[in-house]
Amino acid sequence: MNRQRSFIGFIVAGAIALLVIAIAGFYWFFAKSPANLIASTSQPGAAIFVSKLSPVMVSLLANPDRLQALEQEEELSKLKTSLFAKSGIDYKQDIQPWLGNEITLAITTLDIDRDLENGQQPGYLLALSTQQPEKSREFVELLFSKRALAGANLAVEEYKGVKLISDNSQPEQDLLAGAVVGKDFVLFANDPKVLRDAINNVQAPDLNLTSSSEYQKATKQLPKGGLAIAFLNLPIVAKWQGLELPEQLYNSQIISLVLNPKGLLAETTFLTSSEIVPSSPPLSKPVGALQYIPASAGLAISGSNLSNLGDSDLAKLWRQATATIYGSKEDVVSRLAKPLADVQKRWGINFPEDIFSWVQGEYAIALLPEEQTTPHWIFVVEKSEAVEQGVVRLDAIASSNGLSINPLTIDKQKISAWTQLTTATKKSDVKEKASFNIETKVQGLHTTLGNYEIFTSDLETMDEILTTKDNSIIDNPNFKDSIAAIPLPNQGYIYLEWTKSQNLLERQVPILKLVEVLGKPFFNNLRSLTVSSYGTDTRALKGGVFFKLNNS
Question: Rounded to an integer, what distance in angstroms lies between the CA atom of residue 547 and that of residue 524?
Fold first, then answer.
């Protein structure tokens, strides 16, 4: 048990190296010579070693040495050595000469010995493609000889024509098994049984991942030029986490990373055997509601038709994903958009019932971050008879919460404000008698501009909308570049300016700070990210996250 756990350090280092090279490294290489960085293959060859019951497989489809610009920041050198930090192996001398164009990391089984009494012991497999089999064999021999000198007891066996080497280390040390298979791959695992299973998967093709119909459907969704991909078998991922999902709509997920002239596009597809019905007709251009969102917004969400959002396939995906990741139905969206969640709690309203139900046209939601204060919010919705009735209902809710509805004028624009009268007590210095000041606190405002009803959290935000009409987010070059990278038609956008929203996100999602540390070169140069859903396949939900970087 301890041996299995100790090997996790080896695997985690590999995962961090693979993912950070694949994402953070792309920025630095892209700044120098993007035309030369293309994947050597569209799919990972190491999939033949991986069981079709594997919960997850991640692959980098380019030699990390092609990301030479990272060397200037010393980040790639650190990542290259992290896998073998304890072994005394020198990357440049011992690995670089033979390493090919693929690195694949997979969890091959949830329990190596299938014995529940000793706990769950996942099997881990790391596959490195080789360009020079003899040199890679020399490397494997060198690696294990150094481990033997360090006190490990080696075991060598011949299995179906493949030489397997493993060590019988002390419990506090890493257990390691390795082999060179054919002329193409060097394999490492946390148990010899994992290597034997990998060889069996090659010789009995119906056992490996490439024979999985779900994997075959997923790989058909891959875009051209993907430099890294990840495949997840979602029911098995849930089982791995010990979860029973309340609803299981999506069976698998595939993710790819593709360079774009303006940044990096992470495209993902969720596959299902059920027919997917879009929550609203796809949009062929950005919604007009965005013209009322100031360019200063740190977060903007836009689209159409919120009335059936709770029953949409996207919502079902979100519930399945949050249950898988967090082990609960935690509403992560409300954590990110906490100012809006606070409004919901303070007013005693339910967004789906009291607001979303009457939003059947275009909409835009935005947060305008302020230093050390709660971000201001904006909600823009296309007018309709249902919207007019919805506004009347909100006014009634405001009144029932003790708020007054008062008319105001800003820059000749008529506005309705939800206000609350409060008293401030002040004692007199002479008579020691209390005096009272009556203050008016604005809890929200709304007004009509063109064909849209606009709601804001405060007077300052409303004034910014009215006085900076020619400086909206749709005029922001960064926003234009970002949405240009997202295919049309689509279901709208979630746009986040990283530097403006970083502090807010870190407060609401503390684990994000750890992610930033691991991907420091990337996050230091991240300007914005844009999320959207698109595609026409009725059996697949496709979307992407576009990362715009400072060099683009």
Answer: 12
Tokens of 94: 């011992």
- The label of the residue with tokens 């009215």 reads 466
Q: What is the C-alpha to C-alpha distance for residues 213 and 380, in angstroms, rounded to an integer?
A: 44
Residues 335, 525, 56: CA angle, nearest 5 degrees: 60
Angle of helix 75-82 versus helix 2-32 axis, rounded to 10: 150
Range 161-175 burial, b when 16+ CB lie within 10 A, else e: ebebbbbebeeebbb
Q: How many CA atoms lie within 13 A of 395 on its CB side?
A: 14
Where does residue 149 rank: exposed (0-12), middle (13-18), buried (19+ CB within 10 A)?
A: exposed
Q: What is the pTM of this model?
A: 0.78
Residue in the structure block whose two tokens are 């209390």: 434
- pLDDT per position as a tens digit, 118-152: 667 889 999 999 999 999 999 999 888 888 887 88
Nearest to 1 by CA among 138, 172, 153, 131: 172
Q: Helix or strand or coil: residue 71?
A: helix
Of 329, 366, 330, 319, nearest to 509 by C-alpha is 330
Contact 299, 366 (CB under 8 A): yes
Contact (CB, 8 A) for 544 and 268: yes
Q: How far is CA 177 from CA 157, 169, 192, 208, 428, in A?
A: 11, 11, 5, 20, 82
Can you give the pLDDT at residue 542? 87
Residue type at 28? W
The H or E element containing residue 377 is strand 376-382
Tokens 């024979």 label which residue? 211
- Rg, Å, the chain Cα set: 28
Output the CA torsion 193→195→199→205 (10° steps): 80
Cα–Cα distance measured from residue 473 to residue 367, given in angstroms and rounded to the nearest whole number: 12
21 and 60 Cβ atoms separated by less than 8 Å: yes
Instruction: Assess contact for 546 and 506: CB atoms under 8 A.
Output: no
The residues of the chain scoring below 70 in pLDDT are 1-41, 66-89, 116, 118-119, 169-174, 243-248, 279, 308-344, 370-373, 424-436, 438, 469, 503-523, 551-552
Question: What is the residue type of 413?
Answer: Q
**Rounded-to-integer distance, Cα 312 and Cα 144, Å:** 54
d(CA 307, CA 291): 22
